[in-house]
Write a structure and sequence with these properties.
CATH architecture of the largest domain: Alpha-Beta Barrel
Strand order of the largest sheet: 4-5-6-7-8-9-12-13
Shape: globular
Length: 371
Amino acid sequence: MRTLLMALFALLFVACKKSSPPATDTTPTPVRLTVSGKKLLTPEGNAIELRGLNWGWWETAQPQDAAEATAMGANVIRMPFRWYFGGTGSDIRQTGAPGNIKPEGLALLDTYIDWCVQQKLWVVLFAGSDQGAGDSTENYWTNTSLRQEFIATWSFLADRYRNKPYIAAYELLSEPHPKRPVTSQQVVQLYEELITAIRKYDSLTPVMIGPNDHYDINLLEETVTTKDPKIIYTFNYYLPTDYIKPDKREDASLPIVSYPSTYTDFNGNTVKLDKTYLEQILQPAIQFRNNHNVPIFVNQMGVRSRCPNHLAYLTDVCDVFYRYGIPFTYWTYRTRDDANEYGIYWFNKTTRQYVYKPEPAAVLEAAYKRK
């Protein structure tokens, strides 16, 4: 009898085990954006236009910056990790460390991202690697082991942040500019290798890529890939160069350009610089977006405070972006440069304090809050 009862209990145990539902992954789906044609959608399915700021200078962000960005109406921060970077004080590469990243640099990156997440700010995490992007002869197209180390670092970060909420995108390599004979196709090949590596750990977060020659808007067509459906295409808008970079005109003994104005460019052409012209030089990106049905993003836009009538220029650029539905991040929030350069905050080296610029901040706040 005892043997019979034990056999019955064994049968019941097996039956219950077979009928039990399989174990499920209880890890919540991270808060992510979705690529839908030309648009980005929130987790709720609503279209979102990212408008925000660069925290471009490594180790300048302050604990209050995320809350200040939210108060301005921004919804995104473009966040760097400086890896194989020319500035030794900013470079967080450490071969052989976890992720090939200095532990103190990784801890700082974690902290910066957490500040944004606490404010529900989206984060575009970008690799700032001027040496690897082309400044050095030892770069990601000339040195295979360096390329593999860079790919391994991105794999590490994708694994680390795959469940971190509010990661908007991984921007794979800011402003690639390898010297010839490296081609745009070879730049795209690097992007595709990075995407393959990242997707082993994170299948949800969009990736962001941009054209060769420092994100040249006119080279967007050379950047197309079908490697992944979750791609955002990015470019710079420091245009026109004659106005944005007055030092180049000074070096050529040419008069500094004001805004608006009519001037002669470096090629001897007469240019009427006004809002209409700002729209005109944006058209390659608009056409690219329409031709390929993909989202685009201006990762850097801005103007030096020394540029004549810079607030009018910034206002008109924001208006043009609004008209065409162009998301953007302004360069930059804090800078170590003086008051004549970019930045909402500049650094006074005498007092060792950051100084706020209310005028450009007001222009941006109006742009961020515009519906």
